[in-house]
Write a structure and sequence with these properties.
The strands form three sheets. A nine-stranded mixed sheet has the order 7-1-2-8-9-10-11-12-13. Strands 3-6 form a two-stranded antiparallel sheet. The protein is α/β, with parallel strands linked by helices. It folds into two domains: 232 residues, Alpha-Beta Barrel (TIM Barrel); 56 residues, 2-Layer Sandwich (Alpha-Beta Plaits), CATH 3.30.70.20. It is globular and about 60 Å long. Bound molecules: iron/sulfur cluster (2 copies). The site of one iron/sulfur cluster has 14 residues, from helix 2.
């Protein structure tokens, strides 16, 4: 195993129950090639490290302003502001802050160190759980991720890859031998809407979905499809029905699961800390009746009804 290859991760989430079977450790890699309007992990979009200010920790001592040689920080009635044009990500403010209110997002890992880190959690993997690579788009750091998954497989660990699928076929080919489960997002079937809401055409993603389903039928990794239910974007009966038809006809019902994931706005604070606007900040979760209706559409769409799941909280009031 090479000690030189490195990757940038955002976070390691332990005891995860949403990224594959059993109890898992999910490694979130930084960097993404989509620009989904509703993205719930804005810190994962940029490949490079970022610094963020945590208002609730700040004691207002102004030490960070004093140490910033770029004069990138200022303070007003709303707290600390960072001029991201001036900021060089030197981390001096984070090192100086006595309250840990300036936080670096992004950790550089060597391969062997990250393998060791996740194997610490082996005790709770059991027979079903394991490790999931997610992001961002983890497969943008393919050289590292391929070796990371291979190292885990050689240790007998169940591996899952969470991907948006906007990648050359050759990239997917490289991880398949080391992957037990692919979690693939299918967001929108309409090409124009997909481009509008994610910034990219969905043609390659759909072709990759067909490729992964074909490989599944030949004994390749298990395949789960996930569709976020985003108000005003993906949450239409027409979109859910079209994805279901695609799963039934083009994927020949090869996936074991198709999960409709209800939108939430819990990440609004993440955008604020990064000084980013988010158009969904004030958008409430779906009503329970709306989510149930979409679930019903999915079950009658042509996808095998028993593969359809729903997840995420909804609201019951009007
Ligand atoms: S990371 Fe460095 S340049 Fe950026 S605000 Fe902090 S001290 Fe200034
Ligand atoms: S150094 Fe930390 S606690 Fe002090 S003003 Fe800056 S962010 Fe707030």
């Amino acid at each position: 195993m090479s000690g030189e290859i490195k990757a940038v991760t955002l976070d390691i989430q332990r005891l995860s129950t949403e990224d594959g079977p059993g109890l898992r450790t999910t490694v979130f890699f930084k960097g993404c090639n989509l620009a989904c309007a509703w993205c719930h992990n804005p810190e994962s979009i940029a490949l490079k490290k970022q610094v963020q200010w945590l208002e609730t920790r700040c004691i207002g001592c102004r030490l960070c302003l004093a140490v910033c040689g770029r004069e990138a920080l200022s303070m007003d009635e709303n707290g600390i502001r960072r001029d991201r044009e001036k900021c060089l990500l030197c981390a001096a403010c984070a090192e100086a802050c006595p309250a840990r209110a300036q936080e670096i997002k992004g950790t550089e890992w060597e391969l062997a160190a990250l393998v060791r880190e996740v194997l610490k959690d082996r005790a709770y993997f059991g027979s079903e759980g394991g490790v999931t690579v997610s992001g961002g788009e983890a497969l943008l750091q393919i050289a590292f991720v391929e070796k990371f998954l291979a190292a885990l497989k050689k240790q007998g660990v169940h591996t899952a890859v969470d991907t948006a699928g906007l990648l050359p076929r050759s990239v997917l080919e490289r991880v398949l031998p080391w992957t037990d489960l692919i979690l693939l997002d299918l967001k929108l079937m309409d090409a124009v809407a997909h481009k509008k809401f994610t910034g990219a055409d969905n043609g390659l993603i759909l072709r990759n979905a067909e490729f992964l389903a074909a490989r599944r039928r030949e004994g390749g990794p298990e395949l789960w499809i996930r569709t976020p239910m985003i108000p005003g974007a993906t949450d239409t009966a027409a979109n859910v029905a079209a994805i279901g038809r695609f799963i039934g006809e083009k994927l020949q019902n090869a996936p074991a699961r198709w999960e409709l994931c209800a939108f939430n706005n819990l990440c609004a604070d993440k955008y604020r800390r990064l000084d980013m606007d988010w158009q969904y900040a004030g958008v409430p979760p779906l009503r329970e009746a709306e989510m149930e209706a979409l679930y019903s559409v999915a079950r009658q769409s042509g996808a095998r009804p028993d593969m359809v799941r729903r997840s995420g909280a909804t609201r019951t009031e009007d």
